[in-house]
Fold this sequence. Notes:
Blueprint (H helix, E strand, L loop, with lengths): L9 E3 L3 E2 L7 E2 L1 E4 L7 H8 L4 E3 L2 E5 L8 E6 L7 H9 L4 E6 L4 H14 L10 H8 L6 E8 L2 E10 L3 E9 L8 H16 L3 E7 L15 E5 L2 E5 L8
Parallel strand pairs: 11-12
Antiparallel strand pairs: 1-4, 2-3, 4-6, 5-6, 7-12, 7-13, 8-9, 9-10, 10-11, 13-14
Amino acid sequence: MSAPNDALAFYVSPPHTCGYLDGRDAVTLFLDPARRPSMPLYARLAHYGFRRSGHHLYRPRCPGCSACVPVRVPVADFRPNRSQRRCLANNRDLRLECTPFGFDAAQFDLYLRYMAWRHPGSTMDDPDPDHYLACFDSSWCDTEAWSWFDGERLVAVAIVDRLADALSAVYTMSDPTETRRGLGNYAVLQQMELAHEAGYAWVYLGYWIGACEKMAYKLGYRPLEWFDSGHWRRLEHGDAAPG
């Protein structure tokens, strides 16, 4: 794979409070905000650990810290383990609808309830619809809202980007009263299933951080590939975590 074109410009942000590790500052590398990205460019930069937030493509670049590890699942080789098969079976009563992402009142209400439960007081725990759209919407990106319903009641939403060769799991939110269902895991497993049916090579799961308990679930999807020093390396069943 060739490196990104030298004509691309990137900028780093000023240091800001890390959203994952207490007492640390973070620095973010952004594709030039003045450049309008495209889906082919997004797919290309995803191979180098970049993610999307709103209109922007970014990657952590914190001096002296490499805690944020990009991870993805090779779809063709993934097989759910016993716990994951049980999660699939327990949620087969749910109905899935996939629609282009945009503001939806029911989805936004679920987001607010999920944030108040899962991330109270964080920068994302904001009742402003404009802030919500700034985080997840983009005029240039092929983004979908995958909504799961129990009857007519919305219980989970996954925001998913469709790249040429992969799905990128942007964010998942679920009903705080439905914790027994394991809806976060179910959303990933359904993305794996639909990616396999569509012939995608990978499902990108974002960043894994060893010291962040909320991200531990990502290591449960094996084989798992992680980006390290310019290369994707592979974790098989039984392998130790990166680092």
